[in-house]
Design brief:
The protein has 448 residues and is an alpha/beta fold. It has 3 domains: 31 residues; 187 residues, Rossmann fold (3-Layer(aba) Sandwich); 169 residues, Nucleotidyltransferase, domain 5 (2-Layer Sandwich). Helix content is 35%, strand content 16%. It has an 8-stranded mixed sheet with strand order 3-4-5-2-6-7-1-8, sandwiched between helices. Strands 13-12-9-10-11-14 form a 6-stranded mixed sheet, with helices on both faces. α12 crosses α13.
């Protein structure tokens, strides 16, 4: 009998137990023949996590909403393999699905991801039962006669005539012609006794996906990128954690959450995400904007502190969000000045409607020679924010990385008087206004 190693004190209990189980599996595999090893390599039931196995019961659509790297593509490919192979890969399944539709956003995606990608149908199939691909007809033929056809959602009329008994729709939330492609697909999904479809996608708040989630014939599997961490690069995981963990973008792209925009909000997450930047260069000007709280203490508003820079063409880059709640006036003044010095900013701008001259007095007590400008709000928050939101819509404002709390506030603010004071939003509006809507850039250039 294979000896069982004791737990490693460096590991958590769960990791220790998993380590023991893996040692047992390794010992068992060593006793297999080459043929048995080859069969095991392509045995999805052995390798899959529980969430990656198709659900039991009567369902029409298996909707897999999960973060990037969760293993969605492999799940779709293995489900199609199960339909094509049945219990015995060399006999047509008793409930043969007829024609199988394989649809992605583009023809290239269907070919390079669903078919030939690392987790696509061709690589995951057993060499003795790999389907033959006919590029000219976009057709797969399995040895038992089952056929699959590749389609592009960009050309939805491809799906208008053909009938199918099963389908795999990949990255549905990305389909530009999603409504038309989906309706054509569903109207032709009428072969066999129980037509079924699997959808693998990272969620985005589109109406089609929202409707599909609510359908009574839909069963859902939800999952996070980090559930598949043993099969992902440690460097990749570190990078996405640092950039996106905790942000709304991270909640969507990593955690697989379905996040809806709030009706009436001036900013949408889609606009922020679309124009996000990895870095900022050639900044002509940098400002630190401060929205001071009226009071301090555990129940006081936060002090909004935003760092932003201006580049060529009127593009603004949001560089940092240093907003913090509970600071004394002296402490938030110190924090704003530290940002001014760290970023080698040109100016601190601060709203003084509530603090008056006290704000400048605080700043100059700490750093007498700072460049400082007082700002007074003569219009309401919505009136001040609308021009800035319009700059976002035009693609002129870019977040350098992800600022989860700031982006939550932007995408959630409607201007309702009952809403909590949007301190981060206010500071951002002052920063962008100073840089673009009323400020002028000096002739020098900054590289960061």
């Amino acid at each position: 009998m294979c000896p069982v190693p004791g737990p490693d004190p460096e590991l958590s209990l769960a990791d220790s137990l998993l380590s023991i189980e893996l040692d047992r599996v390794s010992a068992a595999i060593e006793g297999l023949s080459d043929e048995e090893c080859a069969a095991l390599l392509h045995d999805w039931g052995f390798w899959a996590r529980p969430k990656q196995i198709a659900p039991e019961g009567e369902w029409f659509c298996w909707l897999i909403l999960a973060g990037r790297g969760f293993g969605k593509t492999r799940m779709g490919a293995e489900w199609i393999r199960t339909l094509a192979e049945g219990q015995s890969p060399f006999l047509a399944p008793p409930l043969a699905p007829g024609r199988i539709a394989l649809i992605s956003q583009t023809a290239s995606d269907a070919r390079e991801v669903m078919l030939a990608g690392e987790s696509g149908l061709l690589p995951v199939s057993h060499p003795d039962f790999r389907p033959h691909y006919e590029p000219s007809r976009r057709r797969l033929i399995w040895p038992n006669g089952i056929q699959g056809f590749l389609y592009s959602a960009d050309e939805p009329d491809q799906l208008r005539g053909p009938q199918h008994g099963a389908a795999w729709a990949d990255e549905l939330a990305k389909w530009k012609n999603g409504e038309k492609a989906w309706s054509n697909l569903i109207l032709g999904l009428r072969q066999g006794a129980k037509p079924q479809i699997t959808v693998t996608t990272t969620p985005r708040p589109i109406p089609l996906l929202k409707r599909l989630m609510a359908e009574p014939g839909t069963v859902m599997t939800r999952g996070s990128t980090f559930e598949n961490k043993r099969n992902l690069s440690g460097r990749f995981l570190d990078q996405v954690r640092a950039l996106y963990e905790g942000s709304r973008l991270g909640r969507q792209e990593l955690e697989g959450e379905f996040l809806e925009d709030i009706p009436g909000a001036l900013w949408s997450r889609d606009v922020i995400d679309r124009h996000r930047a990895a870095c900022a260069v050639d900044l002509a000007r940098i400002v630190v904007a401060v929205d001071p709280p009226v009071s301090h203490g555990p129940d006081a508003d936060a002090c909004g502190i935003i760092v932003a820079g201006l580049a060529a063409g009127g593009h603004v880059y949001i560089l940092d969000d240093l907003t913090e709640q509970g600071l004394t006036p002296n402490r938030w003044a110190q924090k704003a000045i530290a940002a001014y010095q760290d970023w080698r900013a040109d100016r601190i701008v601060a709203e003084v409607n509530n603090g008056g001259d006290l704000v400048e007095t605080l700043m100059r007590q700490i750093a007498p020679d700072i460049s400082y400008k007082a700002l007074r709000a003569s219009r309401g928050k919505i009136a001040r924010a609308e021009p800035v939101a319009a700059l976002y819509e035009r693609g002129l404002v870019h977040h350098v990385g992800a600022f989860s709390a700031l982006e939550d506030q932007l995408s959630g603010y409607t201007g309702d008087v009952s809403e909590k004071s949007p301190d981060r939003l206010d500071a951002l509006v002052w920063a962008v206004t100073e840089l673009v809507l009323q400020g002028r850039a000096p002739p020098r250039i900054r590289m960061i």
